[in-house]
Structures are given as structure tokens and as C-alpha cells.
Amino acid sequence: MDRWVGKVAIVTGASAGIGLVIAKSLVDHGVKVVGLARRLDKLQELKEELKKDMFYPIECDLRKEENILDTFKWIEKELNGADILINNAGIANATFIIDGPIEEHRKVLDINVIAPAICAREFSQSIKKRNVPGHIININSMAGHFAETIHTPIGMYAASKYALNALSMEIRHELIEAKLSIKVTNISPGAVLTDMLKNIVKSKAIVDKIPTLKEKDISDAVMYALGTPQSVEIYDVFLMPANSPVGSRKLIGN
């Protein structure tokens, strides 16, 4: 991680859960962090907890492209651009696809797929302008690879994560074509004990039975990927709780 000391990272969804832990870890490693979220009060609380000159809270609604563009303009002006992009923000709901309102489906796709695409575009242009190395890390999910193992209804979530998986591949191909020195890493954890999981499953009895990872497990994987030399690119990381079922067996639910 030494080569990132003093550099700038963008972390979406930094106000809670995995994003918050990633932001803290980056600051601990000497990386300046621009934390994006809708809840500015939570970001301000995190700023008070961290070194004030290392964390920059920005209120940003990732469903609004103009918000994202304004954020990148601010970063360019105030910090001379970002070197790391962590597309962490994600939402899930249990709205059934077969009879749910389309607006709920659009919300999931906007945040889980379209926002990472916009952020990757703006980040890549910034890297190109400065001709420096960069790293994009997309926080995906095992749901984006093995949806058949999930027996709890999660609406458009798995579909959006499959799309994020394909998006990561496409971005990587385009960066190679453009000869930009930007790595792309997809981090795909199994169930993580976050508020999102609790809101989806709802039943505490079921949640207690699910083998889960901690937010720090995901953050550690991010630091590992960032810590590799420029000549090494970790393409995809699968993280599962030890001794948890994988493959044709169920990950969560009944």
C-alpha cells in the first residue's frame, strides 16, 4: 500500500457498512478519501472520527448523473483528481420482479450498475488526463455469480450484480484498448452482516443461521488488491465464510 500514500480514493456509499470500513482502512494506510453518500450527517461524523485533512465528505445522490459529475469536478479542482475508485454503494430490495413496481427495479439498477459506469467513465478520463496509474474496485457479490444458490427473494439485486460483473469485464477490455494503466478488480463476497442483509431477510432467526462475513473482511480484500505491484492485477476475488455451502447448495434462505 506504500505507493498509494498521499493519493486520493473515492469511496461510494461511505456513510455506513462496508464503505465506511473501507474508508477508515484507506485513511489508516495514508490515503486521502473522498466519501460519497446521501447522508451527509453520517459522513460528517466519520470525518470527525478520522484525520480531518484525510477525509472529504460529499453529499451525492448516485441516481443523479449531475451529482456525480459535480463531485468529480470538485475532486479535480481541489485534489487534482483521484487515483482509486471504490464502487461500493449498492442497494437491494425484496420487491418481486413478477408483480413489483418498475420504479423499484430502476432504483436498484441505477445505483448498482449505472452509477458505477458513470463513475468509471469520469475516473478513467481523469487518469488519462494526468497519465498516472489507477485502480477501480467494484464491490460485487456472490449473488452476481451464483444466483441459483439464493432462495430468499431479492428482486433485481442478483440481476444487477451479474450486470456489474459484466460491466467490470467490459471496462477492463476498454482500458486495455485505450492503453490506460488502470487495474479493475471485482470483489464478490458471500453474505455480509450489514443492515442491507437484515432488511432483506427480515427474520432475525434466519439471519442468525446464515454464515456471514464481516465488513472488515471485505475491506481487507480491497487493501490486498490495492497492495499488489503494478505488474499484478487481481481480476476477481471470491470471499465466503469458512465452512459455508457453495455451488448448488443454498447460501441464504430456506
Overall mean pLDDT = 89
Biggest sheet, strands in spatial order?
3-2-1-4-5-6-7
The residue ranges in which pLDDT falls below 50 over 5 or more consecutive positions are 247-254
Task: List the secondary-structure elements in sequence, H or E.
Answer: EHEHEHEHEHEHHHE
Measure the end-to-end span: 41 Å
Major sheet characteristics = 7 strands, parallel
What is the number of helices? 8
Backbone structural class: alpha/beta
Beta-strand content bin: 5-15%
Which oligomeric form is depicted?
A: single chain
Helix content: 40-55%
Described by the principal axes of the CA atoms, the overall outline is globular
Radius of gyration from CA coordinates: 18 Å
Number of strands: 7
How would you describe the overall organization of this protein?
This protein is an alpha/beta fold. It is about 45% helix and about 15% strand. The protein contains eight helices and seven strands; from the N terminus they run E-H-E-H-E-H-E-H-E-H-E-H-H-H-E. It has helices at about 15-30, 40-50, 65-80, 100-130, 155-175, 195-200, 205-210, 215-225; strands at about 10, 30-35, 55-60, 85, 135-140, 180-190, 235-240. The chain has a seven-stranded parallel beta sheet with strand order 3-2-1-4-5-6-7, sandwiched between helices. The termini are far apart. The model is unreliable at about 245-254 (pLDDT under 50).
